[in-house]
Design a protein that fits this description.
alpha/beta, TIM Barrel, LLM class F420-dependent oxidoreductase, F420-G6PD/mer, Luciferase-like_sf
Amino acid sequence: MLKIGAVMFFTADSMHPAELGQVLEERGFESLWVPEHTHIPSSRRTPYPGGGPLIRPYYDIMDPFLALNAAATVTTRLRIGTGIALVTQRDPIVTAKMVSTIDQLSKGRFLFGVGNGWNQDEIENHGTAFATRHKLARERIEAMQAIWTQEEPEYHGEFVNFDKMKQWPKPVQTPHPPIIVGGAFPYAARRAIRYGNGWIPRADRLEKDGVGVLIDKFRSMAKEAGRDPASLPITIFRVPEEIDRLKYCEEIGVDRVTFSLPAEGRDKLLPIIDRWAEIKHRLGG
């Protein structure tokens, strides 16, 4: 059965994450996802991928881990995910503890969506060289995997380097929460196959070449790399309210889709959520 979740930029003026989490769980949705931007520099060397000026919620968004934890405290079944966390801007030792802690507090409901970022100015404010961010991200993820799964982890790479250490708590999920790699085909798809437990493409980018075409290519790439495609479930972000497209996603074995919610209050969000609840019902969920 196709899983359906929601993704939202939480701000000081939007619906509270705890309230939204309850609403989503009551209506049987599977997950809630929160993007990440620590800040947005006033300079701009990289155009906004969506085209036009950058929308204000990018500047206003809350920290994803704190927002998700607020939702987790008032729910019992709803899965919570970063959609996505910018590992190129995060210390891996600190982030490893945050991930394992939120997985403990949510009793194993955390989904670790990760990405490498598009905003050069933002990334470089964190001391990361834009040109080598992909290798940095891989090393940080490998280091976190070691921390979560080993009693005395150590990691020695070009960008991440630490000797034997101890860190608890370990995550509830074993060997760790799924690392679901966000980004476009083919580069992010290759990263998902190399070190991930799933892939997050955006619906609008898949449409350009055909959803089924790119998903078939992704699965073929996984097999060529020695990965079982079943171990790399696909989550399509920001799908439109079109039941025929959703049925097609279900037919070709997409694991999960998420719909976008604007950074608004309850009165604006409930009609959208209720429309999606009806769509979910029509799909048999």
